[in-house]
Each structure stands twice: as structure tokens, then as C-alpha cells.
Amino acid sequence: MLKKAKLNIASQLVKSVVNGPGTRYVIWLQGCPFKCPGCFNKKFQPFFNKNLVNIETLAKKILSVEGIEGVTYTGGEPMVQAEPLYYLSSILKKYKRTIVCYTGFTMEELEKHKDPFTRKLISLVDILIDGRFQEDKKAHLVWRGSTNQKVHFLSDVYSDFQPSVHEEHSQMELVIGEKGITYTGTVKEEIINRLNQLINRREIEK
Q1: Does 183 map to a domain?
Q2: Would you put residue 188 in left (φ > 0), alpha (ψ -120 to 50) or beta?
Q3: Span 94-147, pLDDT tens digits
Q4: Is 54 within a domain?
Q5: Which of 58, 66, 73, 203 has the greatest count of CB atoms below 10 A from its CB?
């Protein structure tokens, strides 16, 4: 089953410092049922095959990256792909990599899920950040975009971070590559709008 397992991936970032503790490999999954108003990743909401990646191939790629503590799953909605994420997490855990997972589901909703792989995946997660983004509760908090979202420490690995998760905290990361600029973190719209204006102006001037 593992050899056939694949993830439908929207995007990847080899090293990030704003999507969980330390330096992390980030995977954005394609497809989300919630379609929250104000969602920053609207292009990751539709359900279609974006980039199907073999689990074992992806695990080897992640494990080859030096200087990362683990992986962060975001989206999209990771729990829609709980089975392949469980297989990937199982491999990474053997090599002492940590798992951070975002989800639009609340912990209470996840506990009622009938899919056995949802529970299996959660059992391997070190930090779970739950709840749908709510635009009317928008805030700049550690690893979260709105005040309703909660940070659950499911292992003791990052227990030292617990006192700081309620503080206001704004971190934004820009990665410039061949395909353009990737924005991630607690993104401030006014900065993004200004950057896009500058980029569009430069394209026009060429």
C-alpha cells in the first residue's frame, strides 16, 4: 500500500522558519472543503489533481534536506489526505523528524471522524493547529491567522513554546524563485499589495 500511496500537493517549501518551530519543510495540500472567506490560499481550495507525489520519494527528499527539524502540513486541508500523510509521517518519525499539522477541523470534530487514518495521523503529530480561519476574528498570533484557532501540543517535544502561543506575533517570509515570489507566515495584506504593485510596475516597464 505504501508504494502506491501518493499525496496531492499544491506547493512545497524546502525550508521555512514561520510555519512552526525551528526550520521546517512545508507541504501545502491541494483541496479544502471549507472555503473560508478571506482565505489566503484560495488557489489551494479546489479539488483536482495538482501534483501527485509518491510517499517514499517525498520522504527521501525531505530526509535529504539538512538543518530542518521536521515537516509542516497545511493547505488546503491536510485531513482530507490523512492516509498518505500518515504513511509519510510514519517514515519521518523513524528519523526523529517532528510533525506540525494545520487543519480547518476543530479537535472535537476530528475526534468524531470515522476515518481511522485521521486518528492514526493525529497520533504522530507534535503540534496541531486547528479551526477554520474566521475573517471577523483576524489577528496576528503565533502560527495562526484568527483568534478562534487553537494550538494543541500533542507531544512534549515543543512544550517550551506553550507560554508564547497567546502572544501577538507577526512573521512573514518571502521566498524569491524562478516561478515568482512565495509568501508565507502571518501575511500582512498591505505589504503584499505593495509588493504586487511594484512587481506589476516592473513588468510593465520591461
Answers
A1: no
A2: beta
A3: 999 999 999 999 999 999 999 999 999 999 999 999 999 999 999 888 899 899
A4: yes
A5: 73
Using CA atoms, how far apart are residues 110 and 33, in angstroms rounded to an integer? 14
Cα maximum dimension of the chain: 55
Residues with Cβ < 8 Å from 75, sequence gap 6 or more? 10, 28, 29, 30, 31, 32, 41, 44, 102
The residues, ordered by sequence, that sit 6+ positions from 204 with a Cβ below 8 Å of its Cβ are none
Residue 40, phi then psi, degrees to nearest 5:
-75, -25
Q: Is the peptide bond before 76 cis (omega within 30 degrees of 0)?
A: yes
Q: Give the chain's domain count.
A: 1
Tell me the three cell numbers of residue 198: 511594484
**pLDDT tens digits, 138-176:** 988 889 989 999 999 999 999 999 998 877 766 656 554
Q: In terms of C-beta density within 10 A (0-12 exposed, 13-18 middle, 19 or more buried), how is residue 11 classed?
A: buried
